[in-house]
Amino acid sequence: MNSDKIKNYFSNPEQTPLQQIVDDIFIEKQIKLYIKRDDLIDAHINGNKFFKLKYNLIEAAEKNHSTLLSFGGAYSNHIYSLAYAGKKFGFSTIGVIRGEEHLPHNPTLQFAKECGMKFYYLSRSDYRKKYSEEIISKLKNTFGDFFLIPEGGSNQLAVKGCSEIPGRFQIDYDYVFCACGTGGTVAGIIDGSPKHSKVFGVAVLKNASFLLKDISKFSNTKKSDWNILFDYHFGGYAKFNKELMRFIKSFEQKFNIPLEPIYTGKMLFAIYDLAKKNFFPEGSTIVAYHSGGLQGLNGLIQRNLWRA
Ligand SMILES: *Cc1c(COP(=O)(O)O)cnc(C)c1O
After folding, report:
1. Which pTM value belongs to this model?
2. Would the CA dihedral through 211, 212, 218, 223 be positive or negative?
3. Could you give the CA distance from residue 100 to residue 96 in angstroms, rounded to a whole number?
4. Which domains, and CATH codes, for the chain?
5. CA torsion angle for 55, 14, 267, 256 (degrees, to 10)?
6. Which atom number of ligand 1 is nearest to the Cα of residue 182?
7. Closest C-alpha residue for ligand 1 atom 4
8. Alpha-carbon span 69 to 114, nearest angstrom
9. 234-291, pLDDT tens digit by residue?
């Protein structure tokens, strides 16, 4: 396995723009909002998934693994990026997918399949115990040896990669916001942020209180200035309403920056809502982390849940 090729690719990420969002509410409250456009880092390995995969792929190559296996839902941005990375760097990839197979494949899995990924479906109840010895040995019997990357890519190697995110902002900031699924990305951002900056994760799942414990475990610093906002999930993972849809459409129109309603739309909605509620002191500088994930829109469009 060519670990030099992987190192070279991941050590030279695109220097993506940090765009200021000049909107009435921020002028009125005298605060500055910037958005870090890591959705532009790469067409297929983008946003936070670039940083989550970085050290996982280097480790897999250095340990001479030729097969990567990971877990995700049928619309997972992580599965999508992993499949592409496997093709790009010459790994075989296996996606262990939650739920039953649906044919034809949705756009996410169709792309993954075109990249050469093999799928293995687990019922929802088996998926809950996906890391159990029983399931893992079943997977080993089926696929042989593999390098396991947890669901959403979140492990210590992912956190290490994500700790490199804030260094790329190139400005001093008081607050940084990031959408939060498993919490691996926010843990890395906590580790990589200066002491005086506050880190907020916006939970996109309902009943996500597990995040507080998981992020404390993932994060390697004792930095205490972080918190998770639990009130912006809009009903749960991939759930949204007309209000969020309108917000996203209007934001896209004003600033020509694409969002989606699963992660980044909820995160920006939270920032606007907090600004309205005078949460940020005058003079504050806020960075919103655009973690990518726009491929997820294709599945929503296909199901007529979203208009492009
Ligand atoms: C995966 C993903 C997240 C969540 O990252 P976690 O590390 O699981 O919290 C946030 N935004 C986007 C666009 C994602 O694809």
Report:
1. 0.97
2. positive
3. 11
4. 3-43+158-302 (3.40.50.1100), 48-153 (3.40.50.1100)
5. -160
6. 8
7. 181
8. 16
9. 999 999 999 999 999 999 999 999 999 999 999 999 999 999 999 999 999 999 999 9
For residue 176, the SS3 value is strand
The ligand 1 site (C-beta within 6 Å) comprises 47-49, 77-78, 152, 154, 179-186, 263-264, 291-293
Output the pLDDT for position 1. 63
Adjacent-strand bridge partners of 35: 19, 288
Q: Do the Cβ atoms of 118 and 86 come closer than 8 Å?
A: no
Which of 160, 180, 219 is the best mutation target for the ligand 1 pocket, counting ligand atoms within 8 Å of the beta carbon and taking the most?
180
Rounded to whole angstroms, the Cα distance separating 300 from 296 reads 7
Cβ atoms of residues 107 and 295 within 8 Å: yes
Beta strands across the sheet bearing 92-98: 118-122, 92-98, 67-72, 147-149
CA–CA dist 68, 72 (Å, integer): 13
Residue 68 pairs with which residues in a beta bridge? 93, 147
Q: Which atom of ligand 1 is nearest to the CA of 183?
A: 9
CB 163 within 8 A of CB 186: no
Strands (E), 219-284: 226-229
